[in-house]
Amino acid sequence: MSTLQIADLKREPELQCRAKGINAATVREYGEAMKAGATFPPVVVFHDGKGAHWLADGFHRVAAAELAGVAEIAVDVREGDRKAALLHAASANSDHGLRRTLADKRAAVQRLLAAYPKWSDRKIAEAAKVDHKTVGAARKAVAAPEGGEFPTAGDAPPNDAGPTEAAPAHDLGAAYLEVASAHKARSADEHREAFESALALAFAPGPTRRRIVQPKGEAATANGGE
Prior knowledge:
Blueprint: E1 2-5, E2 9-10, H1 24-35, E3 43-47, E4 53-57, H2 59-67, E5 72-79, H3 82-91, H4 102-115, H5 121-128, H6 132-143, H7 172-182, H8 188-202, H9 217-222
Parallel strand pairs: 2-4, 3-5
Antiparallel strand pairs: 1-5, 3-4
């Protein structure tokens, strides 16, 4: 196992595909564990052959090592440039570490769309390990004239024709439970991806956007609601 000085790692914010950046609580938790002697997996870095080591996976571990007063860290060095590091970073934590949120997945997709605008939705989805519908919604948001932000649920589309009749709300909670019940053989991860895809479509701009409402009745009870 090799090590590198933390000061020699190139830590670029765009390669840290978290919507909210570094999670301070996670850094503290990791830092305390390191002080207690815990061993963490090596961080993944890409060496571009020109002396740069791009950190692609392990931003929380590196920050925790600094907090614990550690000067060097175990590394898994791979050959590649910044784009290779980005491709790896986009799917990092899909199966280990701090679980990605839907916002984290969007952040990864948006970074890939910026780097590879001509890639298909499915190719981006494969690289980020998300559903291709999530990519489609993100691509539409990037192309939106308002600047590409995902609209808030219930917002009316901008126009100059005055108020229009609101589209009927969809009870996504109940709809998802119906789908889940019909596909009991799915894994928990597959169920989560299906629901996140529904959320992505719900927040997509345009006339197909759906408004999210809280589950009612049996759906709310099944979800632990009151």
